[in-house]
Amino acid sequence: MYSTKKLIEFIRKAVPSFSGVPQKKVYLSRNKSPKHGELYENTNVSADPHIDFFDDIRLDDERKLELYLQNNGFEIVCPENFKSLDDQIKFMAEVKVIASCTSAGLLNTLFMQDCQTMIEFQVPLVALRGDGTWDQSLHDFYHPISYVMKH
After folding, report:
1. SS3 129
2. What CA–CA distance (Å, rounded) separates 146 from 66?
3. Phi-psi region for residue 150, left (φ > 0), alpha (ψ -120 to 50) or beta?
4. Residue ranges of the alpha helices (H) in 15-110?
5. Adjacency order of strands within the sheet including 24-28
């Protein structure tokens, strides 16, 4: 909690003050994210039985989820499309509801105003460990940020 609070304080010093009331409902798409499938396919490591998949796709049909959310008033955003970090920060300061599957994109919540809403479609991540074995786990990186920011 302490380090999360310090991180948010640091960002708030660097980010221009917020103006306006957040109105946007945004889904952060991984459509343009590299999938890293080739990293998993080209390894000669046998997997433990608890490993369910060997790619970084994360959702079976992200387009179907995007259409559902679009039909419910969400704007679909690829973070890679922002021209600058400044544009991204200004945009996120206007977001009332942010949604995404587990991904680094959810760090954008740090640029939102306090007391907004974050929806994480939590998915397991698979990675090759340094010792040559596979790991599949759920990551809780965004819970402390949401808690401190009162999302």
Report:
1. coil
2. 23
3. left
4. 37-41, 62-71, 85-92
5. 75-77, 24-28, 95-101, 117-121
Query: One digit per residue, pLDDT tens: the chain, 151 residues?
Result: 888 889 888 888 877 677 789 999 999 998 777 665 555 555 555 556 566 665 666 777 889 999 999 999 999 999 999 999 989 999 999 999 999 988 888 999 999 999 999 999 988 877 777 777 777 778 888 888 899 999 9
d(CA 120, CA 106): 8
- Sign, Cα dihedral of 86, 88, 89, 93: positive
Q: Rounded to an integer, what is the distance from CA 124 to the centroid of its chain?
A: 13
State pTM to two decimals: 0.81
Yes or no: say if 110 and 129 are a contact pair by the CB < 8 Å rule: no
Are 151 and 115 a contacting pair, CB within 8 Å? yes
Report residue 11: phi and psi, to 5°: -65, -40
Q: Which of 118, 106, 122, 104 is nearest to 147 (CA)?
A: 118
Q: CA-CA distance, 22 to 31, in Å (whole number)?
A: 25
CA distance 124 to 134: 13
